[in-house]
Structure to design on (374 residues):
């Protein structure tokens, strides 16, 4: 019986217990004021093209109304009153911060407080990203023209600049979208480098894949061999004569450009390239003179005096000795290839290499290389 009475007393006591007291308001809330507990902060990277976000910080009371104002070097930025801010070109080189104003829930003027974040680092330029590298479109052959694409970029370029490279080195003057292969390109690899410029961003570069090795205008159609010999007293360097003559044979502008490949051998060969003392040239044929070079049968004869001095008319025109050497080797070898003399196709036009340019050009321009029609 006593146990029952104790149980009933406990139930009555629990049932009549006073309710728990609610949390006491903070002093600021009780006084109708606002206090900044943790200052605001700018979240994100201060770089053009990025969006920054304002962290409002912590406030007492917690249910304050918040407004934002973005600052550049401490001065308000027009219309920048959202929690997010997209960095502008005007911000480059400046520091950004955000001012957060908290208003007490009851709207009292006294319950309004502004706190400002620490400034960011100076705003930097954005970073461009190449999404697809440039390409070189066209055939890699001497005299052909190829075209570069600009590639694809995350931000569309305002403008681009092209730079063509040969074996990784810049080609002098080659800065347009199109590029025409020149003799020096043959046997080498060419690519294009594109530089992209966008307002507010650092410039960026992207480079195409290399082309296949640039080939001659046409593939080899005929292979010939030759040997180098001398006649008479030779004062010029035979080694240099042989080297420069081979360069002429290999040049894409010469007979190699017509499909003829020349290979030097120690003896014999398809023909003999002769460096001859001027007085010995007529000994090959009565049709040859000691003044000029000549071709007789298997002999392609280069007059030593002309090799060393060119001709007065060539020199008077301001042409180079190297150009004359190209011309005389091409001309006399052309005879061996079966080509006769040519005439000027019209005043002001290039002289055919098979024209006797040492004796006059009939109004044509001096030219050391076979023309398209030869």
């Amino acid at each position: 019986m006593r146990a029952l009475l104790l149980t009933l007393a406990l139930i009555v006591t629990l049932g009549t217990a006073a309710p728990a007291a609610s949390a006491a308001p903070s002093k600021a809330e009780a006084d109708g004021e606002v206090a900044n507990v943790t200052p605001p902060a700018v979240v994100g990277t201060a770089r053009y093209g990025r969006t920054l976000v304002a962290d409002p910080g912590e406030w007492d009371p917690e249910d304050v109304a918040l407004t934002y104002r973005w600052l550049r070097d401490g001065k308000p930025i027009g219309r920048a009153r959202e929690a997010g801010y997209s960095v502008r070109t005007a911000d480059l080189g400046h520091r950004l911060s955000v001012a957060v104003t908290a208003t007490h829930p009851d709207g009292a003027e006294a319950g309004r407080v502004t706190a400002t974040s620490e400034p960011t680092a100076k705003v930097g330029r954005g970073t461009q990203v190449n999404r697809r590298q440039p390409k070189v479109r066209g055939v890699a052959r001497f005299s052909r023209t190829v075209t570069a694409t600009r590639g694809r970029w995350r931000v569309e370029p305002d403008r681009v600049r092209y730079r063509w490279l040969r074996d990784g080195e810049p080609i002098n003057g080659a800065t347009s979208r199109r590029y025409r292969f020149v003799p020096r390109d043959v046997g080498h690899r060419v690519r294009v480098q594109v530089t992209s410029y966008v307002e507010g961003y650092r410039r960026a570069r992207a480079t195409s894949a290399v082309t296949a090795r640039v080939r001659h205008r046409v593939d080899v159609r005929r292979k010939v061999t030759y040997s180098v010999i001398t006649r008479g007293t030779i004062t010029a360097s035979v080694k240099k004569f042989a080297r420069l003559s081979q360069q002429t044979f290999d040049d894409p502008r010469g007979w190699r450009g017509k499909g003829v490949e020349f290979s030097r051998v120690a003896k014999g060969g398809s023909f003999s390239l002769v460096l001859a003392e001027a007085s010995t040239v007529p000994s090959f044929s009565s049709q040859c003179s000691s003044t000029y070079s000549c071709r007789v049968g298997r002999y392609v004869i280069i007059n030593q005096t002309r090799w060393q001095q060119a001709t007065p008319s060539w020199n008077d025109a301001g042409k180079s000795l190297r150009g004359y050497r190209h011309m005389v080797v091409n001309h006399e070898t052309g005879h061996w290839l079966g080509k006769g003399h040519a005439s000027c196709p019209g005043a002001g036009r290039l002289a055919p290499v098979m024209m006797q340019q040492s004796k006059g050009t009939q109004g044509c321009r001096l030219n050391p290389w076979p023309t398209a029609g030869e």
Remarks:
- The chain is about 15% helix and 30% strand.
